[in-house]
Design brief:
rod-shaped; coiled coil; mainly alpha; 27 helices; EXOC6PINT-1/Sec15/Tip20_C_dom2
């Protein structure tokens, strides 16, 4: 039952669904009927649906048939009318066809004209579009053409600016064109080309300033010299106006327009041509000679390209290399001043350029970099100057070098470089300068001393007298009162030496100029150098003259007189130094001149040489002595050699009248003592083995001649018989033997007031032995004579007693 109900319900649902599908088929467009039919076939009741569909079709056919039957008469009428209309339509068609044919025939030219108009309108539209596109492209092409022209004329910085505008402003507007793509591809290449060309210009600039550094430095040093001369003029004249600056303001003299279109400014890569000015024209500024535009252009170009750091590193590296080349002195620099000048010019030129770059660019070089270069330059320059100046032996060259170094230091100081070390080094060179001066003056003194005649200066007129007094500070009222002709006590070398000492002081003063030293330091330097001149150079020259082998007593006497006057002139030298340095000698730490010591030492050496020379002359005369020690004849006059010796001594001591009294007395006493000692040695020498009383008598005559000379007072100032005491030993010895007063000698020996106090028993024994041997040899038959035997016995007895005295003396 239930199953039947369910089947019935399902059939009802199926019937309703089929009904719905049929309604959709009836109402739906045939193009969209597919999904509806698909739903039929998706189900299982399509057979029943087909049945219903057939039933519905039959129903509609019946309705159509009914409707046709109802409207059939109207349909027939309509067909009839339609057939009538067809005929009219055929007529109308023929008329239209004919009209169309006529129209086509008549409008053929118009169609052709319209086609031509169409083509013109199309061309016009294309031309307009082309013009619009060309208007966009022309600025690009113009900028590119401008870029190529700028590249061709080497205006690289404007070219770089043009390239920037082209890349960022113009090319983006026409980027879809193929030629723009080519341009875009070329832009990096153009940038590199600009970089390379600007770097090439920079290299040319660096090479140019390297070659012309000496010219730049020379100009800067000339300008510094002009400024210093101007300062000196201002110091010497009243200050009317303010002092002119040496360093020019703000470097406007060499600022160039980077984007200038001038071919000269673009192509110039270094040194501008400057005609040689006359001496009276103003020297151009050192930087006026240099066109720095290549550096500025290259710096701007690399900055724009984002490679500024690369450019800075390259520039500094290259300049460091150039600095090392500039600071390398030539091997023969010390030979001429021009060698030093060129060396300094190159250094000054280098740092003038760097200083200008420092002040006209932002960061290309900085103060630390400049200071580093200057420290290196300063150390290398000082080392080079120390080395090369040590080879210099000409004081004039050293002085010129000093002036050049001062100018070099002053020039660089103007540009802000510290130069204290250079002035410190000049103090070292000052010592070397002093040494070269001392060597030069040693030659001058040697020539003066060698050419001097060592004779008092004769003057025959007041003019000659004043000339000598003007050269040497000498005052003598007695000499002034004497009539002409008259003589100065000193020889020509005194005023010459005095003036040369003053010239030496002037030479020392010249070196101290412009060294920024105080007057006290200058005074101390001059005094120390002058002391070296006096105590070493002049002293050695005098000593060499004094020690010469062929020096005569007259020359030695004149040297003593000359040194005495030079010693007195030392106070005038002190005053001379005080006047030129304005430092009073009473100032604390003022060095005193040692001239008095020098001349005293020279005088003492001359005195000693006089004593030695006199003794040598005496020895030469004594070598002429020819005693016959075995003679038995009694002579009645002194030996010829001794007479000549005494005559020589008299004439020599007569020359000593201008010597200080003590010197003459010492020389006379020394000569007499040496003569007495030499005569004693002559009597006692071992070669004289035997002598006779007659020979002793002759010797006694010679001694008496010497004593007579001593009593005659050859040199004033001796008291009574003081000079005779030089011969007292000989006198007592000869008296003892000639008087044969042995009993007195032996009896009084050892007593302070004995008659033969100066007779040494050894000397007496030696001489007695010589006489004893002679007596034995010459008296073969003496043993047969009683007197001779007694005399021989007495000699033996005396000799024995003398030996006893000698033995007791030694014990």
């Amino acid at each position: 039952m239930e199953r039947g109900k369910m089947a019935e319900a399902e059939s009802l649902e199926t019937a309703a669904e089929h009904e719905r599908i049929l309604r959709e088929i009836e109402s739906t467009d045939t193009a969209c009927i597919g999904p509806t039919l698909r739903s039929v076939y998706d189900g299982e009741e399509h057979g029943r649906f087909m049945e219903k569909l057939e039933t519905r079709i039959r129903n509609h056919d019946r309705e159509i048939e009914k409707m046709c039957n109802f409207h059939y008469q109207g349909f027939v009428d309509s067909i009839t009318e339609l057939l009538k209309v067809r005929g009219e339509a055929q007529k109308l068609k023929n008329q239209v066809t004919d009209t169309n044919r006529k129209l086509q025939h008549e409008g053929k030219e118009l169609v052709i004209a319209m086609e031509e108009l169409k083509q013109c309108r199309l061309q016009q539209r294309n031309i307009s579009a082309t013009v619009d596109k060309l208007m966009l492209c022309l600025p690009v092409l113009e900028m590119y053409s401008k870029l190529r022209d700028q590249m061709k004329t080497k205006r690289h910085y404007p070219a770089l600016k043009t390239l920037e505008h082209l890349e960022h402003t113009y090319l983006p507007q026409v980027s879809h064109y193929r030629f723009c793509k080519v341009m875009v591809d070329n832009i990096p290449k153009l940038r590199e080309e600009i970089k390379d060309v600007s770097m090439s210009d920079l290299k040319d600039f660096l090479e140019s300033i390297r070659k012309h550094s000496d010219k730049i430095g020379e100009t800067a040093m000339k300008q510094a010299q002009q400024q210093r001369n101007l300062d000196n003029i201002i110091l010497q004249q009243p200050r009317i106006g303010s002092k002119r600056k040496f360093k020019k303001d703000a470097y406007t003299i060499f600022d160039t327009e980077i984007e200038s279109t001038s071919p000269k400014s673009e192509q110039d890569s270094g040194i501008l041509d400057v005609e040689d000015e006359e001496d009276d024209e103003e020297v151009p500024g050192a930087q006026d000679l240099v066109d720095f535009s290549p550096v500025y252009r290259c710096l701007h170009i690399y900055s724009v390209l984002g490679a500024r750091e690369t450019f800075e590193n390259y520039y500094r590296k290259q300049r460091r290399k150039q600095a090392r080349l500039v600071l390398q002195p030539p091997s023969n620099m010390h030979e001429t001043l021009d060698g030093y000048r060129k060396y300094f010019n190159q250094i000054v030129g280098f740092f003038v350029v760097e200083d200008h770059i420092l002040h006209t660019t932002q960061g290309l070089v900085n103060r630390a970099y400049i200071d580093e270069l200057w420290e290196m330059a300063l150390s290398k320059t000082i080392a080079a100057l120390r080395t090369h100046s040590s080879y210099c032996s000409d004081p004039n060259l050293v002085l010129d070098l000093k002036n050049l170094i001062v100018l070099f230091a002053d020039t660089l100081q103007v540009y802000g470089f510290p130069v204290n070390q250079l002035f410190d080094m000049l103090l070292e060179i000052r010592d070397q300068y002093s040494e070269t001066l001392l060597k030069k003056w040693a030659g001058i003194f040697r020539n003066i001393l060698d050419s001097d005649n060592y004779s008092p200066i004769p003057v025959t007129s007041e003019e000659m007298y004043k000339k000598v007094v003007g050269q040497f500070p000498f005052q003598d009222t007695e000499l002034e009162k004497q009539p002409f002709p008259k003589k100065f006590p000193f020889s020509e070398f005194v005023p010459k030496v005095y003036n040369q000492i003053k010239e030496f002081i002037y030479a020392c003063l010249k070196f101290s100029e412009d060294l920024h030293l105080s007057s006290t330091e200058v005074d101390d330097m001059i005094r120390k150098s002058t002391n070296l001149l006096l105590t070493r150079t002049l002293s050695n020259s005098l000593q060499n003259v004094i020690k010469r082998k062929n020096i005569g007593l007259t020359e030695l006497v004149q040297i003593i007189i000359n040194t005495t006057h030079l010693e007195k002139s030392c106070k005038y030298l002190e005053e001379f130094i005080t006047n030129i340095t304005n430092v009073l000698p009473e100032t604390v730490h003022t060095t005193k001149l040692y001239g008095t010591t020098t001349f005293k030492d020279a005088r003492h050496a001359a005195e000693e040489e006089i004593y030695t020379n006199l003794n040598q002359k005496i020895d030469q005369f004594l070598q002429l002595a020819d005693y016959d020690w075995m003679t038995g004849d009694l002579g009645n006059k002194a030996s010829d050699y001794l007479v000549d010796l005494i005559a020589f001594l008299r004439s020599t001591f007569a020359v000593f009248t201008h010597l200080p009294g003590k010197v003459a007395q010492t020389a006379c006493m020394s000569a007499c003592k040496h003569l007495a000692t030499s005569l004693m040695q002559l009597l006692l020498e071992a070669e004289v083995r035997q002598l006779t009383l007659g020979a002793l008598q002759q010797f006694n005559l010679d001694v008496r001649e010497c004593e007579q000379f001593a009593r005659s007072g050859p040199v004033p100032g001796f008291q009574e018989d003081t000079l005779q005491l030089a011969f007292i030993d000989l006198r007592q010895l000869l008296d003892l033997f000639i008087q044969w007063d042995w009993s007195t000698y032996l009896a009084d020996y050892g007593q302070p007031n004995c008659k033969y106090l100066r007779v040494n028993p050894v000397t007496a024994l030696t001489l007695l032995e010589k006489m004893k041997d002679t007596s034995r040899k010459n008296n073969m038959f003496a043993q047969f004579r009683k007197n001779e035997r007694d005399k021989q016995k007495l000699i033996d007895t005396v000799a024995k007693q003398l030996r006893g005295l000698v033995s007791s003396h030694h014990s």
